[in-house]
Design a protein that fits this description.
Strands 1, 2, 3, 4, 5, 8 and 10 form a 7-stranded mixed beta sheet that branches. The chain has 30 helices and 13 strands. A hairpin with an 8-residue loop joins strand 6 and strand 7 (about 595). Helix 1 (about 35-55) runs parallel beside helix 10.
Length: about 750
């Protein structure tokens, strides 16, 4: 997650402390009634955001200041517009004005960011980024980042170049709520005027509603700090109070400002709180909970006060910086992340930081001067019944500048449509590249371990496509999700819909059921072609983070996994498959050193199968790439970033025990144990690329194309197991076997 917020406060027109509307142009002119100090406060806030992003790597408090100011500016301007006699109640006007202020620069930044990633940071490409492009354009980035488990992360070569746009989404959603609220209240007043004259002001009910919502938001944020901080950080509902407080201040303070010594002290204290908040409070762990009162309260004190601090903020350099804060915010983070990714750096150094800041300032000035300002809405708000479309049509015919703005608008609209369609286009690219197998001559995969020649070619599939593949059952909609009910199977798993999630030969009589989670799923890449070749069907009965067992003894699996497995095994008992395919080991220890083991929970499944005489193949787990602190890392991403095959490998002993801990299972009739260590770690080294094929999608899941190349090797064990399963007496002999003991 990013550490700042988009300073788009002028989107609705910035008010003075006395409630008078001011020009969006900000500090470009010195008007006596203009609050230049608030432009300067934006300048301080954006300076904090950039400096903390580039040089400090923690939350600055700028996010909270900008959200506060957005509420302050936008709500005040909306109420003032609707209080004017004959004001139009068409909600399109404020929405259109806001879109013209924000979207052009946003689309330009998104396009440039994608281009930069494609050219110099391809390992950042993938489904996540495609979804983030659309979410950023649609002002839903905060919710998408949360759904992608993107918690706060300081600048690094692996961070998302668009993660900072979550705050834009929060503001956009707030603007929609406020437009709906204020227009709704104005419509009620106009309707009421037929009976009571409609003399009441909009500010009264608006304050009441916003105050109640802000209080609820604050309480929710305070509770969520210790429950789900990532959700707390991103949620519109927890962030509402920060914008709401600004709105309440804009509506409620009128022209009141503290003056004299009191005003000077208040504003000085407020500015100090804003500046130091990032140093004294761990915002990533606490904001927008009560700790966010430090920067937000500081901003409120600056608004309320007057004195030397306000005059300092009103100085032209700070005010001008505040005027281009929005563009500066948009540019600095993508420039930083793409630069880090291109240079292979984990964090920015001083030299890179200075270059990024300078480049961001230059691009921000150009964007504000040649994109924001020309496309901004300048016309006065329309009155009821006024037809602006006709006026605009006349302007297009008579004014070259209007035609230029229209052309720019068309370009922005096209960019917006393209951004929103990015996930669809990307999924099409991924599906096209993943369909079918790779050329077995140029890309032999595991066959290279058995003598197939290997030409010096870049590994396949292209890494961005590889990283976007979650596994066959995921891509086919056959992987159960953790949020789904545990007392029923997904619809594709039962009854006539079984066929939707069948692999291999769907018309075969021989049935294999693949049980477990994602580490069973990645073997479908081999099971599917084997089923087609040898005449058996494979039912994928899988759920994320949920290996198959009867009783959970480890307590490390997903919530509801035990209940889900009860449902699954009921289905398996009814189906009576010829064979069950599942995993035999998983990580139990902690690095450094071997971490694999046989969970006691897995043993409960094997005993369950013994009792029912159902044969099974249990495959030893594939390597998990972790550092000494237990943090996962992707060997494929390492190769893509230039680390080389050798540099992105690990010793087999980092994961595997010297002897297969599940080997004893293979001595029991009806059970077959597969040991894939030689296929992944030849000569004691676990490789990221074998036979020009990437081995892994991520830190521990096998790429489907490499799994497909393992089909001949897997068949050496699976073929005899299926043959044994056809023995009419196998079920009885299995039931007679002694039960396995838990360890």
């Amino acid at each position: 997650m990013a550490t700042g917020s988009a300073p788009s406060s002028a989107a609705g027109g910035a008010p003075t402390a006395g409630g008078r509307a001011i020009n969006d142009a900000g500090a470009s002119g010195r008007s006596p009634g203009y609050r230049y100090d608030l432009d300067g406060l934006r300048g301080v806030a954006i300076a904090l955001v950039v400096v903390f992003h580039v040089f400090v790597g923690r939350v600055s408090g700028g996010v909270d200041v900008f959200l506060f100011l957005s509420g302050f500016f936008f709500v005040g301007s909306q109420l003032r517009r609707l209080e004017r006699p004959g004001a139009s109640l068409n909600p399109w006007w404020p929405l259109w004005r806001t879109l013209r202020r924000l979207v052009p620069a946003l689309i330009l930044t998104l396009a440039a960011t994608v281009a930069g990633v494609v050219l110099v940071a391809r390992h950042l490409l993938g489904t996540d980024l495609a979804e983030q492009v659309a979410a950023s354009a649609g002002y839903a980035q905060n919710w998408v980042l949360y759904a992608q488990d993107r918690e706060y992360a300081a600048a690094s070569g692996d961070a998302s170049p668009l993660q900072h746009l979550w705050s834009m989404a929060v503001q956009g959603q707030f603007y929609l709520l406020i437009i709906g609220l204020t227009v709704g209240l104005a419509a009620l007043r106009r309707l009421a005027s037929k009976w009571d004259g409609g003399g009441w002001r909009l500010s009264g009910p608006a304050i009441g509603i916003i105050a109640a919502a802000s209080l609820a938001s604050f309480v929710y944020a305070a509770i969520l700090v210790g429950v789900d901080q990532p959700l707390n950080y991103y949620s519109t509902f927890t962030r509402f109070w920060e914008l709401g407080l600004g709105a309440l201040l804009a509506v409620g303070m009128g022209r009141a400002r503290l003056s004299g010594i009191a005003g000077a002290v208040v504003s000085a204290v407020g500015l100090a709180l804003v500046v130091v908040s990032g140093l004294v409070v761990d915002g990533a762990a606490t904001f927008p909970g009560p700790a966010a009162l430090v920067p937000v309260g500081g901003a409120a004190l600056v608004v309320l006060g007057s004195g030397p601090a306000n005059r300092l903020l009103a100085a032209r350099p700070l005010a001008r910086l505040g005027g281009m804060a929005y563009s500066l915010y948009l540019w600095h983070w993508p420039l930083l992340i793409v630069s880090l990714a291109a240079l292979g750096l984990d964090e920015p150094n001083l030299g890179l930081g200075v270059v990024v800041v300078a480049a961001s300032l230059g691009l921000a000035w150009l964007t504000e001067r040649f994109v924001e300002r020309p496309l901004r809405q300048r016309a006065r708000p329309p009155k009821a019944g006024e037809r602006r479309a006709a006026t605009a049509a006349v302007g297009l015919r008579a004014q070259p500048a209007a035609r230029g703005r229209a052309a720019g608008g068309v370009a922005v609209a096209a960019g917006l449509v393209a951004a929103l369609a990015t996930p669809v286009g990307w999924h099409g690219v991924v599906a096209n590249e993943l369909d079918g197998d790779l050329d077995p001559v140029a890309y032999p995969g595991a066959l290279a371990l058995y003598g197939a020649p290997v030409e010096p070619l870049p590994p396949k599939p292209d890494y961005p496509v590889l990283s976007s593949s979650q596994g066959m059952s995921w891509d086919d909609g056959c992987m159960g999700k953790g949020h789904e009910d545990t007392d029923r199977l997904p619809r594709k798993w039962r009854g006539p819909d079984w066929v939707d999630c069948v692999y291999g030969d769907p018309d075969a009589e021989t049935t294999v059921v693949a049980l477990g989670g994602s580490h069973t799923d990645h073997w479908l890449g081999a099971l599917d072609p084997l089923g087609k070749e040898h005449g058996f069907r494979v039912f994928a009965v899988l759920r994320e983070q949920c290996p198959s067992f009867v009783t959970d003894y480890e307590g490390v699996y997903a919530d509801g996994c035990e209940e889900f497995n009860e449902t699954v095994l009921g289905e398996v008992e009814e189906l009576r498959p010829d064979l069950v395919f599942t995993t035999a080991t998983r990580p139990l220890g902690a690095p450094p050193g071997p971490i694999e083991g046989v969970p006691a929970s897995y043993v409960t499944l094997w005993n369950w199968l013994l009792e029912r005489g159902i044969p099974a193949v249990a495959v030893r787990d594939t390597p998990w790439f972790q550092d000494e602190e237990g943090n996962p890392w992707s060997s494929s991403a390492c190769v893509e970033a230039g680390g080389g095959i050798e540099g992105c490998s690990i010793p087999a002993e980092d994961f595997y025990l010297e002897e297969n801990p599940a080997a004893l299972l293979g001595e029991i009739e009806g059970f077959t144990v597969v040991d894939p260590e030689p296929w992944f770690c030849p000569d004691g080294t676990c490789l990221p690329v074998i036979g020009n094929r990437y081995v892994y999608v991520d830190p521990n899941h096998v790429a489907r194309h490499y799994a497909a190349s393992l089909a001949p090797m897997l068949w050496e064990s699976l073929g005899p197991a299926l043959e044994e399963a056809q023995d009419p007496g196998i079920a009885g002999r299995m039931r007679a076997e002694p039960r396995l003991e838990l360890r």
